[in-house]
Amino acid sequence: MMAAVAVTSLAGCTGADAAGESGLKDQDAWKMPLDEFYVYSVELDNYAEQLLTSKCLEQRGYEWPVPWQNTDYPQPKDFNRVGIRLFTLELATEYGYQFAPPADVESARLWVEFIETAEAYFPDSELDEELVNCRDEIRAVDEDSNQSFDGVNEIMGLALQADQVALQSPAVMEATERWRECLQPQVDFTLPEEPRTEMPPHGADADWVSVDGHPSVDEIAVAVADAECRESSGLSAAAYETEWEEQRKLVDLNRDKLERIRDDAQDRKAYLLTIVADNAPPAP
């Protein structure tokens, strides 16, 4: 039943408002034409439901201590506004291939603490049944709950389509070969087929020992070499420009539908923020 607690992670889902961003290129932030339509936030939707669940369970004699959360859901430095993982020379120098810390450490800490507390209640068949009952009651009232998921899935499908076209384009494939020729002499493992999603390959980090949570010197060296080769080979630029152009075409073909999705998501966001305002505990 803890699936009801965890925030589902969907690349490209965020509560931030990006109207007007589609015309502004920024390779380091990997901004794309579809970004302006990503308004729906699965994190915010989950948080609102958890707050209503807490109220429902309290009426049944149970404690469900949902904490305060930063409903802006700011991304860490290595993710862009719509949840795409970033990899630049600056990030490689600071973090290697590791994840950057949360943008709002306190909000993240409180949510982890809540999940751990809630998990400690189980197994409890009576509580599990009441959770199901509360969830069903909440969703029966919320007729638009599935509509926003469908909308963001439409956007993600278009983004994936553009990404696949970019990966298979001659410009990106040729640049990938140049990246491989640049980096392979500098590492002691076989490079993967697709650097953006498969670096470092499984097992390559066997000898990288983090110190107090910080990447090792060896990991930093490989990551920096990787980032430099992506730039010098033209791979990052080729992938960005090709994907941008494919997304632009898809936005032009689907603009009416995308604008309806955005409008519905903005209405949904306003509704969810009302729930949060009425039910969330105060900020620490």
Describe this structure in words.
It is a single chain. The chain is an all-alpha fold and 284 residues long. The protein has one domain. It is built from 9 helices and no strands. It has helices at 42-59, 89-95, 105-119, 125-141, 145-167, 170-183, 195-198, 217-232, 235-279. The longest helix has 45 residues, at 235-279. The radius of gyration is 22 Å and the shape is globular.
- Rg over CA atoms, rounded to whole Å, is 22 Å
Can you write the helix and strand succession as a string? Answer: HHHHHHHHH
Which band does the percent of strand residues land in? under 5%
Which blocks of ≥5 consecutive residues have pLDDT under 50? 6-22
| Helix/strand structural class | mainly alpha
The geometry reads as globular
Largest sheet geometry: none
End-to-end C-alpha gap? 28 Å
Give the mean pLDDT: 92
Query: How many β-strand runs?
Result: 0
Count of individual domains: 1
Query: How many DSSP helices?
Result: 9
User: What portion of residues is helical?
Assistant: 55-70%
